[in-house]
Predict the structure.
Amino acid sequence: MESPTTPEAELESPPTAEEWAQFRGKRWALLDVFPRYGLDWLHQKFDGNANAAADFLGFQQHGPVSRKWSAKGLARRGKEIPRRGRNLEDGDRDYEKTGEEVWAGWGEDGKHLTEYANEYRWAVPKGQEFVDLVLLSDLHAQSRLFDQPRLQSSIDYIAEDPSRRWLCAGDLFTNNTKSSVGSVQQQTVGLSSAIRGLAYGLEPIAKQCVGIAKGNHDARLQNKQDVEFDPVERLTKMLGVPYFGYAKHLVLRIGRQRYTLYVHHGTSGAATAGGRLNAGLKVMGTVTSDITIVGHLHDEMSRKAYRRGPAEEEAQNGKVPVIDHKQHMVMVASFERYGDWAQEKALPPTPLGSSRIEFSARKRDWHVVT
């Protein structure tokens, strides 16, 4: 958004309704354009309701707006948490919700508790039976051990066939902080630069992406520093691709076939192959998806499992056959070469690169290729 031609100091009135619309969902773009008056106008427009203002700006919580208003001495009214110990005039006091309003608010929040899966419709070229889903994970793009040439090879492979698709299971960034394993000085570039770099590298295959998840490294600013910033969410918006969060159910519609996937970044600090296998199977055991895709442990595994249950067919003489339903756990390797913390802790080297799943568009069948 371009700054107005009128010097900011000469502006005497807040933005028009049309100008306000340009700032919706743009976070602090308002302050970039109107650094001196922006907070005052925001406070005036929403009558001191930080929740409403944060929702307008595109923040998930009202914290950033509340902190800026508080720092400037602007009262937070409306449905907000009251500030104690302030000697404000009655008209400027923060509004403290009644018990009835609190209870009603919980009810409104409860309407959003249902979890929904993403659906992706995959167009298959006429006459083609199998299509490939390429799995990426744990890029750690800021690490000095980031294997960019290997990732470029995977990108080239995806790009050479428009029918191919891909997803990433998290940890696109190293995102070291003062309170995390690894030093900030070990990173080759800062987080903003890394976001721009990955956006540039992945842009040629953005239209073939079914989604990107975040990992524990990606969430370090939120979890370790209590900073409301998600670099993966920012990257997905730049690329225009679905954002999975830490875990997401996914329904693939390939031709007439329907496949269910569960993408989860993964958990555990297991150092042995058996421990990593158990960690992956643990995630798979929480869902009924056909395929569970996990990352995090920088290893490459593919393990089938079966669950018993009724077949999805009409009953014959009041009976439905019980059959084996195939499940598959796929653990995706990383793009971070061996060294640094893993070498210091004498952890064994692990595989590198992507995996892929071949799906049939003619019959319900798939094969994992690692």
